[in-house]
Write a structure and sequence with these properties.
The structure holds two protein chains of two kinds.
Chain A (H helix, E strand, L loop, with lengths): L13 H4 L7 E5 L5 E6 L2 H29 L12 H23 L5 H6 L1 E5 L7 H9 L1 H4 L6 H7 L7 H6 L1 E5 L30 H13 L5 H19 L7 H17 L1
Antiparallel strand pairs in A: 1-2, 2-4, 3-4
Helix pairs in contact in A: 2-3, 3-5, 9-11, 10-11
Chain B lengths: L2 H23 L8 H24 L3 H18 L7 H18 L1 H23 L1 H8 L1 H10 L10 H24 L6 H22 L4 H8 L3 H23 L6 H33 L6 H21 L5 H7 L1
Classes of the chains: A alpha+beta, B mainly alpha.
Chain lengths: 268, 326
């Protein structure tokens, strides 16, 4: 590994803004001038959410339909008038065309199916959608699901945000809110104080070295002790030879100390 | 300061923001305590700067990912959907939308296409009986003949009227919305739906008006005709406008042009849906009434006047055009 001079480092921000098309995230800049990533929902998760919604709708309509069959005297017995079928059809229209739009408008971008799968509809800007966007994208679902071609699936393949036609027309995207798999806040709970003096004062790590260290420190807790040692040794060997470190130093702990110094030094 | 110390010190605030989020998620705006919302906004901004720091200082990857997610979720909660204001909605419905409908070439393309095909098909079916058979089909035509063989309304009861109204809403307004949605395919879907309906309805009209049941047919269709046929035209016009936005982008990218046009076409489709609902109500409750034809005719004139007032008079203002330019 070759140490770079500070001048040759790429600007820190350019990494996030360049080529991102391969990733399933989209970058949003907030009014607070912070850029953060949204994880986009792929066709499979969205189809699942739609299935849950359809199951809820069909279940609800079936129950109401059964109640009407038994109470309007289709099978004999006549509790309420046949006219309730008219009201039923009237509500069926609003349920079919309005369920998704109303849920997303009043529930901050989530139908019940999306809530179950941890998905949410947001605008390009990352802001919550308004009623008009919610209605439009749901009415246009009809066009997205025209068999046999399912144009919406094709549309999702040809843009960076996995948008179907309804999303394109209303300026929305579907993102994953991954509350379940919350990453733990990684930190080195071990004391690295006694290793500090071993690192030379002029140590000036490259960006890629810091990133490699950060990735290691972030994930070391999920690894077994043996695996940690095996991984850490690869990098540790280089520094042991360069700085002639004693053999007794624990590679894992040393990389933690190195990370503390490398990243901490940059802040000052 | 070391990263681990920063993370250590900031973690309580992050946990606090998390509990704020779960507190806000299940409450409506009116139920939120303003002091806590203010504290939430303060914490959110602090976490925003934590995220910047995490990116520039290369915090451990898991922590950075965690902060990305925390900021994203707080962001969607802080900038929630705007509340629904009935006043804005009425202004749009009675001021901006009629003006846009009147000035949109798509309205008039759909209008002339529908009426020329409808009248052409009507004339063809009236002059040559086999035209209607070819378009509509033998069985549908004989169904129509037997449906209108008796004067209407004699046996209609309130119950069956309600059922039919519900059916007209579900079926007709649904067709209208499908017609609008299929306009996203460069307007072609809407034009096909419009042309098909114009020719189909024209053939039925031509056939029925030359049949022995002409009077009964006329008694039924006159009253709800203006609203229903205009609704069909407006649905197609809204779809055509949506598709046209992809072709004529006015300097925007295609996706951006579509996004800017989308909400306006939704308003037009909304007006069409309202007309479908009104037409269904008339068709279900007024058209089957066993009353003199003059009343039905008066209803047709009245509804036509309402349409002329809505699109022709309310549409004359310039508000719609001005908001388009903005």
């Amino acid at each position: 590994m070759r140490e770079q001079t500070p001048q040759s480092r790429p600007p820190l921000s350019s990494r996030n803004l360049g080529t991102r098309t391969l990733d399933t995230t989209t970058l949003v800049v907030t009014p607070e001038n912070v850029a953060f990533d949204f994880h986009l929902a792929g066709p499979f998760m969205r189809a699942l959410a739609l299935t849950v919604d359809l199951a809820i709708l069909i279940g609800f309509v079936t129950v109401v339909g059964l109640i009407l069959i038994f109470s309007t005297g289709v099978l004999g017995g006549n509790i309420i008038g046949q006219g309730f079928w008219g009201i039923f059809l009237f509500f069926l229209f609003f349920l079919w065309w309005g369920y998704g739009g109303a849920m997303e408008a009043f529930n901050n971008g989530q139908t019940l199916g999306k809530k179950a799968l941890g998905l949410r509809v947001v605008s390009y800007s990352g802001l919550a959608i308004n009623a008009s966007q919610a209605m439009l994208r749901n009415i246009l679902r009809g066009a997205d699901l025209v068999p046999p071609f399912f144009p919406g699936v094709f549309a999702m393949m040809f843009n960076e945000r996995f948008q179907r036609l309804g999303d394109l027309a209303s300026g929305t995207m579907v993102v994953v809110e991954n509350r379940g798999a919350r990453p733990s806040i990684a930190r080195t709970e071990l004391s690295t104080q006694n290793l500090e003096p071993l690192i030379p004062k002029h140590f000036d790590p490259s960006v890629s070295l810091i990133e490699a260290l950060a990735a290691y420190v972030g994930q070391r807790k999920e690894l077994s002790v043996g695996r940690r040692r095996e991984l850490a040794l690869i990098l540790f060997e280089h520094f042991r030879r360069a700085w002639s470190l004693p053999k007794s130093v624990d590679p894992d702990l040393f990389l933690c100390a190195l990370y503390e110094r490398a990243a901490g030094g940059r802040a000052s | 300061m070391k990263i681990s110390e920063i993370i250590e010190r900031r973690t309580p605030d992050w946990r606090e923001l998390e509990s704020d989020l779960s507190w806000m998620r299940n409450r409506r705006r009116s139920e939120l305590d303003s002091a806590r919302v203010a504290a939430f906004a303060r914490r959110y901004r602090a976490v925003c700067s934590d995220l910047s720091l995490a990116i520039s200082m290369r915090f451990p990857e898991g922590t950075t990912r965690y902060l990305h997610q925390l900021v994203a979720e707080a962001h969607t909660q802080l900038y929630r959907s705007e509340s629904f204001r009935i006043g804005n909605w009425l202004t749009s419905l009675f001021v901006e939308v009629p003006s846009r409908i009147l000035r949109d070439p798509c309205t008039w393309i759909a209008f002339f296409l529908f009426w020329s095909l409808f009248l052409g098909s009507l004339a063809a079916a009236a002059l040559r009986p086999d035209f209607a058979v070819a378009v509509v089909g033998e069985s549908t035509l004989s169904n129509m003949d037997s449906m209108y063989a008796q004067p209407i309304g004699e046996k209609a009861e309130a119950d069956s009227r309600a059922v039919m109204t519900g059916f007209y809403v579900f079926n007709n307004a649904g067709i209208g919305l499908k017609c609008f949605a299929s306009g996203i395919f460069l307007g072609v879907g809407s034009l096909i739906t419009l042309a098909f309906n114009a020719i189909f309805l024209g053939a039925i009209f031509g056939h029925m008006l030359t049949s022995p049941a002409a009077d009964n047919f006329r008694d039924f269709v006159t009253a709800h005709g203006p609203f229903e046929l205009t609704a069909v035209v407006l649905s197609a016009a809204a779809g055509l406008r949506l598709g046209w936005a992809i072709l004529d982008t006015k300097g925007w990218s295609r996706a951006e042009s579509l996004r800017r046009t989308g909400p306006r076409t939704l308003e037009m489709a909304g007006v069409a849906t309202i007309l479908f609902l009104l037409a269904a109500y008339i068709e279900g409750f007024f058209s089957p009434l066993y009353i003199a034809y003059e009343y039905k005719f008066a209803m047709a004139i009245g509804t036509s006047l309402i349409l002329i007032f809505y699109i022709g008079i309310l549409g004359l203002n310039n508000r719609g055009r001005r908001s388009d330019a903005a």
